[in-house]
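Dear Dr. L.,

I hope this message finds you well. Following up on our conversation about the binding site, I have prepared a predicted three-dimensional model of the protein together with MTE. For your records, I am including the exact sequence and ligand specification that went into the calculation, followed by the structure tokens. Please feel free to forward this to your student if that is useful.
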Amino acid sequence: MLIRSAPDLKDCDVTDEGLYLRRREFITAGTALGAALALGAGEAGAAPLAHSPNKMPIDEKPTPLKDIAGYNNFYEFGTNKDDPAAHAGTLRARPWTVTVDGLCKKPGRIAIDDLVKRFPLEERIYRMRCVEAWSMVIPWVGFPLASLIGQAEPTGQARYVAFETLYDPQQMPGQRDRVIDWPYREGLRMDEAMNPLALLAVGLYGETLPNQDGAPIRLVTPWKYGFKGIKSIVRISFVASPPKTSWNLLAPNEYGFYGNVNPEVDHPRWSQASERRIGEFFRRKTLPFNGYGEQVAAMYRGMDPAKLF
Ligand code: MTE
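The resulting structure of the complex is given below.
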């Protein structure tokens, strides 16, 4: 990620959290739609998503919506943190088709609205840690990646899952610059993809995703650095070997395939020992696997932790 000085961030936790806690009322009143549009969520705007309540509570306050939808990395819309909110309105998140292919018994193409109906949606409030040493707490709405994999029935040869973002420079003007070898690509090992924490998110704060956060569907792996969370996915493929991933292709010594949060392994240009939670003043210590070690550490036993960045 190209590092620039962070713009002035203002904290308005009180208002946003208040709105979040009153979200049912808020949704009924239709105010959410207005708020999302004001945040540049695109022409379609945000729509409420029916979902079950959060089953994995964490004792940390969700980051205000204005920051989650206003401070983003989405190079398809520019490399500054405020570019995606300003420019992602050109992305048409509907109609949208996701292709599932490769080494599986049930490949197919599915329209996003059918995909959303196919699996029960749940809220998952996750701690998110960006490789640039800032973090947020995001109330995602989505379904486990494992549910989709289960339906696709990967064959025994499928050892990895590869993901691809839309390539369409008309909708994604940042793709006219070759900062990245487009389309943006990511991948997971099969056991990581099957981990119950891995989520395909279709919403946040109870509504469809703002375009700038990866509408209509993006990956969320909270034990990994944010770059693994590929946005606006159009293809999910089952493959036999480790897939090429965008940041690893660009700077292999800085961004590994695994991208697991590890406070003990510095980025070549800065420390990963602490982070700045967006909206907070004091830095906090970064936790191994971003605090999700209990759920994920066993997958990496026997591997050299220094290779897991
Ligand atoms: N996905 C695509 N297609 N393009 C991107 O530039 N940036 C990644 C990831 N997914 C990126 C992407 C990075 S570096 C981060 S930190 C997260 O998205 C940021 O997600 P957020 O903006 O929703 O917080």
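In brief: Confidence is low (pLDDT under 50) at residues 4-43.

With kind regards,
A. P.
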